[in-house]
Every structure is written in structure tokens, then in C-alpha cells.
Design a protein that fits this description.
Length: about 180
């Protein structure tokens, strides 16, 4: 029915037998995008025109200018349209808010997980360093026990001589006790 190459579609109510119900209700659909010439084309073009200065019908142009350009018209339309748009799109707005909240929660969880992983990695690195230092100290002690020189141990382990001297002093203090 709609889309048969005509700009206006008129509907009436019918019963299951095809008899038109005579209660006076009619539906009229107008295709404002109908491209061919027809009597209401300029009117439909005005309805679609966002710029009132380009409208052909003066009464529409004046009202559109009032609501788009004059302060009292703007103040009247803005809250009403805002409420109407909010009501029409309430479900979509709620859905978008839920999506944003979920994204924010996911970002926070990701940050917390990343922070925990970083802390665990840092703890593991610290533990490994301590273990390595402990092993290095034990190795230095074994070399010192076998009477190797500080210079030889430093060269073999690629350690600063001061580190070996420190371990040597600690060993001497333990012997004194």
C-alpha cells in the first residue's frame, strides 16, 4: 500500500469482512520525501528545512524563526523539547548510562588488577634479587674460606672489591663472637 509511487496514503478502519467502519477515524500518511511535483511539495520541503529563511510559506517561516531565534520562543521550546526527547529516549539513555558505568567499572578493575600484578612482579623481583645477593654472598664466603684473594674473587665474580671486603669483615666479626 505505502510506497506505490504516491505521496499521500489514506486509511480507514475496516472489519474482518472488509466493511468500512463508519466511526469517522481516518489515518493519512504523507511522504514528505516524495520527489516529484505535487500540491504539497513546497509545504513538505518547509517542514524538512532547518533554516527558516529558506522556507516558502511565511506563516511557517515566522513561527520557526520565533522558536529558533527569539529568546522567548527558544526558552519555551527548549524545556518542552528536552523533556519530550528525554522521555522518548529514556530507555536508550538508561542503556547508555549502564554501558558507561560498566565500562568505568571494568577500567577500574583492570587498573586494580594491573596494580596488583605490578606489585607481585616487584615483590618477586625483590625476592629474586635478595636470593641472588644471598647466593653471591655465600659464594664470596666459600672463596674466602679457601683463602682466595679479594682481587681474584672480584675478578671472577665481577664484583666490586668493596663488596668482598664487606663480606670478609662480616666473617671476621662472626669468628670473634
Amino acid at each position: 500500500m505505502i510506497g506505490q509511487g504516491k505521496p499521500i496514503h489514506h486509511f480507514t478502519m475496516k472489519d474482518e469482512y472488509g466493511n468500512e467502519l463508519d466511526e469517522g477515524h481516518h489515518l493519512i500518511f504523507i511522504d514528505a520525501s516524495y520527489a516529484k511535483d505535487w500540491p504539497l511539495k513546497d509545504l513538505m520541503d518547509d517542514f524538512k528545512q532547518p533554516d527558516p529563511n529558506k522556507m516558502k510559506y511565511n506563516i511557517l517561516k515566522e513561527r520557526a524563526m520565533h522558536f529558533k531565534e527569539e529568546e522567548d520562543g527558544i526558552m519555551y521550546v527548549t524545556p518542552n523539547i528536552r523533556e519530550m526527547v528525554l522521555e522518548m529516549h529514556k530507555d536508550e539513555i538508561d542503556r547508555q548510562v549502564r554501558i558507561q558505568v560498566q565500562k568505568k567499572i571494568q577500567e577500574q578493575i583492570q587498573q586494580q588488577v594491573q596494580q596488583q600484578v605490578q606489585e607481585q612482579v616487584q615483590q618477586e623481583i625483590k625476592k629474586q634479587r635478595m636470593e641472588t645477593l644471598k647466593q653471591r654472598k655465600e659464594t664470596i664466603k666459600r672463596f674466602l674460606d679457601k683463602n682466595f684473594s679479594v682481587e681474584f674473587i672480584a675478578e671472577v665474580l665481577q664484583a666490586p672489591p668493596s663488596e668482598i671486603e664487606q663480606v670478609k669483615e662480616e666473617m671476621e666479626k662472626q669468628i670473634e663472637q
